[in-house]
Amino acid sequence: MKKTMRPAWVEIDRGALENNINIVKSRVMPGSRICGIVKANAYGHGLREVVKLMIKCGIDCFAVASISEALQVRTLAPFARIIMLGMIDRENFDLVLEEDITAGICDAGFARELSAYAFDFGKRADVLAFVDTGMGRIGFQWDEPDLKDELKEISELPGLNFIGLMSHFSSSDENTPEGKAYTDLQQERFESLRQELISMGIKLPLCTLANSFPTMYRKSAHYQLCRPGIVIYGGYSYEEFRRDGILPTFAVKAKVMFVKDVPAGYYVSYGRKGRTERPSRIATLPIGYADGLPRAWGRGRGYVLFGGRKAPIIGNICMDQLMVDITDLPDVAAGSEAVLAGMSRGVYLDPAEIGESCGELEHGIMCGMSVRLPYVYR
Question: Which residues are designated catalytic?
Fold first, then answer.
């Protein structure tokens, strides 16, 4: 393994990522293509390495959440389409035009400002109209009385290339009648608006609606561009994804730095929240909540894996360290490798399990680990 500057690290499986990308590509309808979602440091997997791998796999469109992410992608993919998933600050209009970033628009006033700036700049900006079909986030409200007239006006602005519509499903991964019905409703709203605009003579060469689950299982939502996210990054907690051959890509590991024997009734960590019930062996790992591990995962709630075997976390997780009870694992010693998330000899400690236990998302656990930990790619 490549030497790291800390005895704790994030480990990314390139082979699993490539496997997942190819499976997702095989599910996309003819006439549609994939937009690689690489926001939040590629879901904590490392933007630079993931973009390079996606390019190798034939992906030539990427989506980001900030201008800084867009600039990173542009250095790696000079000819790719880069789509901003969030609103653009007006002070960055120049970068949007210089770097050919596809912007999202949510109101006519913003569109007019961007058009005027682009016209003076001597270029036309590619734009997608964000449409809120039921997510309740950003975008034109799908049923605004004047929406179609506003979009017609926007399509004719001299500084813009109005290329299509984008919306986002809120419940497409809910395997319930209610979740399916709401996803159906959002798609019906999107399609109704799309058809009305086409009937008005507005060209929409790039419409995009499908996130991970619709990319895999709802072909009618593919349009010209699919935006798979967590499925590419091994959303392994979803039974459907596992059945389709999606593999886990992300792991967090650390070496045991210290082992000590303590008597029964011994307190461990801050606030005396950990207490041994018997004479115990306690191992200390050099990783803590400052590395993105939720503090609430401690106090006996969470665990780590040694060779597929569980060792419970005892006491509060500290900023840079945590303690585990290895009394029942006599072979574990200083230098032994612990898995804090990911696969360990066929046993999977799912980031989603950590997140669910602590009131957080799987995505958040993976993204949070990218702050301080070094990365190892294999």
Answer: 39, 270
